[in-house]
Amino acid sequence: MLRQYELVEKVKDYDPDADEAALNRAYVYTVQKHGAQKRASGDPYFSHPIEVAGLMTDLQLDEQTIITALLHDTVEDTLVTIEDIEANFGSEVARLVDGVTKLSKIEAMPEDERAAENLRKFLLAMSEDIRVLLVKLADRLHNMRTLHFIKKPEKRQRIARETMDIYAPLAERVGMYEYMREMQALAFREIEPEAYATITKRLEQLRSQDGGQVDAIALAIKQALAEAGLKVEVSGREKHPFSIWQKMSERHVSFEQVTDIMAFRVITENEADCYRAMGILHTTWQFLPGRFKDYISTPKNNGYRSLHTSLMYENSMRVEVQIRTREMHQRNEFGLAAHWAYKQHDKADGEVGWLRDLIEIVDTSHDAEELLEHTRMAIYQDRIFAFTPKGALFQLPKGSTSVDFAFAVHTDLGLATVGAKINGRHMPLRTPLNNGDVVEIIKGAGAEPQLSWLGFVVTGKARAAIRRAVRLKERAEVAQIGSKLFDEIAARVPARIGKKAIRDAIERLDMDGPEDLMFAIGSAKLTDREVMEALVPGCTADLGEDEDWSARERAISIKGLTPGVAFELATCCHPVPGDRIVGLRRKGETVLVHAIDCLELANGIDTDWLDLSWGKRSHGAVGRLSVTLYDRPGTLAEMAGIFAQNKTNVTSLVQTQLDHPFTSYEIDAEVQDLAHLNRIISALRASDAVAQAERI
For this protein, what is the EC number (predicted)? Predict the structure, then answer.
């Protein structure tokens, strides 16, 4: 543990103008306030904030950050308040401490909600001042170093998993690779102790057997570059156990099959020497095609810059080499901390522009599970590079599609997307992008995100925006159903219902506005009786409890509503426009539409029945057919021709029975309405290839 004078001296070494008195006061303050508190290791509790402050001095951060590190646990674990911090150390330190402080109520939440709420508060604080993140990462790193002292294995597992899922990826995204690697190693040891022990043991065996091979390869690289007149530093190391385990898992290979366990780093004097060194290495040893990456000309989102290549050394040994300048190396290891981005008031632009996406995800995520899912996508995936037609560069996770690209450019562009050109060619929206693709997004007036997009988009920002848009559309369409139901409910009330009665009803039901009322009616969160009583109190007193409250005088049209949003077409009977239909409505669920003769309706006794109609010009649904063909060559092709002639698309074809001389199929076909479906059935029955055709 750093002593008081040692901490102050470390700060004064790189910042002679630092307020020595304030640093001393903060050191004494944290020792006094934490008092006799102990950590799980048995050490005094104040040793933890002092060690965190020491980590901040290693990064040469300003005095406010050092003081924040010293005080970051006082509000949570002692009687100190934010107001006390502000009175003693100023508003800036108080704001930073408040941003880092973990609220005690979070610990009482379920695990996913706690992690999500912690992350939500964390991201919002980061967007205001990146120093909050730097202190928090140092706090988590020191806690991971002492994790083994915690007695409860389930608590160790939870902390390790949270570190692996959230804090290590965040460290990577701000370029603090040294922190990321150590967090991953410590978390991996706890989460996968057997794998960690096995890989560590194998690495020790390699070390004992290689006879100084790492040093020999490093020396050979240095000599090859020196002979070409380059002054460089070369170091070599084995990859970390977690990195090796990742490769084993991703490639489904054993430890022996991981060929690039050794990694070497070449530090040059300037950027031009980086490219010269790469050329010399590629002409001295065979390099592996597809393994070269130029992060100098095209840095990563977090500012990381380096050349990466893989070489085949003697005896067919694969080695990885990273080439960078000393300035790049310092930046790559400690990221934003190395350049003090906050001193330039660069809170959410440039190198931390990705924070804006995270904040948008915080705003649009519906619940804890969504927030964690979308955020992990946003902060923990390998990247590709794609361009707009005007040359603007965007970094995206591997596997991203044109829809992900559109949302990366701007949320409004993503919401209006109807198509895309990749390198000048029209391509399906689900097409994965490759490095260097030029993507042109085609917008459409009145376009809306499709629920099916969630099946192929990969970025957290896109998923969050699509889900939010679909939820808003669902709410509007359910409210539309509720409005139609409300008209019938109001007609049964013994009074004329005007705007004042509706406002009074909304107030009695404790709702925010008419749309909330209509949504509650449409989603069956309110019964007819509750609505009537809210409109005219006492009007239901003389009515019997057994009255059929859901009785309708006329059918409700579903024209204009979107299948899969406000209602779903039942897959048991596959109703199509022209069929007589009814809807089953359960609380909090979308309306399930059945044909009137569906046998499954017998199971809907406990639900609210809605008499529905398709509405004028309703068209488009999936009809299901059972078709039996004669088992001879060409009959399947003839059946396909009948569907084509009738301009229908077959979405599913399943062989259900093979009983010579017949073959039976179950077919789902997109049809306009009942008449269209009947024409197809008639055409099938008229064919010599078809023995039987029925709707099911």
Answer: 2.7.6.5
Say how far apart CA 453 and CA 461 lie, in whole Å. Answer: 13
Give long-range contacts, CB 8 A cutoff, 24+ apart: 587-592: 587/523, 587/524, 587/525, 588/523, 588/524, 588/525, 589/523, 589/524, 590/474, 590/478, 590/565, 590/566, 591/481, 591/566, 591/567, 592/567, 592/568
Say how far apart CA 353 and CA 201 lie, in whole Å. 41
Average pLDDT (486-500) is 83
**Cα 416 to the chain's mean position, in Å?**
21
Rounded Cα distance, 376 and 358, in Å: 10
Q: What's the residue count for the chain?
A: 696
Residues with active-site annotation: 76-77
Does residue 47 have a pLDDT over 90? yes
Give the SS3 label for residue 101: coil
Dihedral of CA atoms 29, 35, 39, 44 in degrees, nearest 10, equals 80
Comparing CA positions, the residue from 62, 67, 23 lying closest to residue 49 is 67
- Whether 472 shows a pLDDT value over 70: the answer reads yes
Task: Show the tokens assigned to 41.
Answer: 């290791």
**Torsion angle, alpha carbons of 443, 445, 449, 450, to 10:** -100
Measured CA to CA, the distance from residue 592 to residue 586 in angstroms comes to 9
Say how far apart CA 489 and CA 527 lie, in whole Å: 10
CA distance 111 to 40: 21
pLDDT of residue 319: 85
Rounded to whole angstroms, the Cα distance separating 542 from 531 reads 16
Residue range 16-40, pLDDT digits in tens = 888 999 999 999 999 999 988 999 8
Other Cβ atoms less than 10 A from the Cβ of 32: the count is 12
Query: Cβ(72)–Cβ(95) under 8 Å?
Result: no
Helices and strands (H and E) in the chain: how many: 27, 20
- Mean pLDDT, rounded, for 226-252: 85
Tell me the C-alpha to C-alpha distance, in Å, between residue 596 and each of 467, 605, 669: 32, 14, 20
* Alpha carbons 287 and 221: distance in angstroms, whole number: 14
Bridge-partner residues for 397, per DSSP?
383
Confidence bin at 315 (pLDDT 50/70/90): low
Q: Token pair for residue 133?
A: 């993140």
Mean pLDDT along residues 314-323: 82
568, amino acid identity: E
CA–CA distance, 182 with 55 (Å, rounded to integer): 13
Structure tokens belonging to residue 299: 């840095």
Q: Which residue's structure tokens are 């590629």?
A: 282
Whole-number pLDDT of residue 564: 63
Angle made by CA atoms 72, 76, 80, in degrees to the nearest 5: 85
What pLDDT shows up at residue 166? 75
Which residue has better confidence, 133 or 334?
133
Strands (DSSP E) found in 554-605: 556-557, 567-569, 581-585, 591-595
**Omega before 661 within 30 of 0, i.e. cis:** yes
Q: Give the pLDDT confidence score for residue 357 in this predicted structure.
A: 57
The residue type of 645 is Q
Q: Please give the C-alpha separations between residue 477 and each of 483, 558, 566, 586, 591, in angstroms, as whole numbers.
A: 10, 10, 5, 16, 11
